[in-house]
Amino acid sequence: MTPLAKLISASSILLGTTITITSSHWMAAWIGLEINTLSIIPLISKSHHPRAIEATTKYFLVQAAASTLLLFSGMTNAWCTGQWDITQLSYPPSCLLLTAAIAIKLGLTPFHFWFPEVLQGSSLITALLLSTVMKLPPTTILLITSHSLNPTLLASMSIMSIALGGWMGLNQTQTRKIMAFSSISHIGWMTIIIIYNPKLTLLAFYIYTLMTVSIFLTMNTTNTLNLPTLMASWTKTPMLSTTLMLTLLSLAGLPPLTGFLPKWLIIQELIKQELTTMATTISLLSLLSLFFYLRLAYCSTITLPPNPSNKMKQWSTKNPTNSLIPMLTPLSTSLLPLAPMMLTIT
Length: 346
Known about the structure:
GO terms for molecular function: NADH dehydrogenase (ubiquinone) activity. Keywords: Electron transport, Membrane, Mitochondrion, Mitochondrion inner membrane, NAD, Respiratory chain, Translocase, Transmembrane, Transmembrane helix, Transport, Ubiquinone. Residues 290-343 form the NADH dehydrogenase subunit 2 C-terminal domain. The chain crosses the membrane at residues 12-33, 60-82, 94-115, 152-170, 203-219, 239-261, 282-304, 324-345. Residues 23-288 form the NADH:quinone oxidoreductase/Mrp antiporter transmembrane domain. By secondary structure, this protein is mostly helical. The protein is built from 16 helices and no strands. The chain has helices at residues 3-22, 26-44, 50-81, 92-106, 114-120, 124-131, 136-144, 151-168, 175-192, 198-222, 227-236, 238-252, 260-272, 276-301, 325-333, 339-345. The protein is globular and about 65 Å long. Residues 308-317 have low confidence and may be disordered. Helix 8 packs antiparallel against helix 9, helix 8 (151-168) packs parallel to helix 14 and helix 9 runs antiparallel to helix 10. The protein folds into two domains: 1-127; 150-307 and 320-345, no CATH class.
């Protein structure tokens, strides 16, 4: 892909995201989502591999269906209430349609099937965009309309997402699929609290984005696509492997790392809302995700490949390190002492 094409795609993603975030009209929000979808498609298919073309086709069909549902939801609400304003969503069938549309776009269970396959067919940088930037517009619409949505439906989908994200990640050896199920699990944590405290959803999304960017950039530097490559990466980049281990543990939510903060606050808020059973359930289900995060951290720093490699010795190769990694990794692991200030900002 030429630099001009990359610039156009990146600008279009930024434009579409900005339009959706700042819009108060259903049609403008739909236009922003469509611009986002069309601008990411060339980045997914740029390798011209059959797997990439398959991922592109799946992504386009799923996102087009979700955008159509969202627009139909807005039109139905406008037909019955006379309001095109996003904040004036009050017609119950429109609320259900919108919940389904946003769940498809975010990859919430039971509409999660497309997300791991699309990430597996994409490059690491494109997978990073799909896991972070492309989740922001649907999350924003969900935040704006959270007062109109069904709490029971959202809670059920969130709990299923946390459970499935941890369960399906256990038997994966491809790092992109592991990160996909990690994203499904974290989206479940964000949506379960969105009705009771939207600020916590934003904080969880910001911290998740920070940690995910750090992990994907590190994996891209070491060209880590599966567990055997991850096992051998310490001979080539020992410091990057160490920081990757810490960031993975932070993404798992282990104290005293940064990733512990949003989970701690979400559980605390659920208990305040007298939803102790729900808080206990998602806490126990998060142990499934913790297992495969620990396995990744173990593979990246402690274990060796089971067989000798016939390739060129790993330590004789040199990979340029992304300049963002030294800045993002400390933020991804040591922001917990700044929690009071972060809560004030959000």
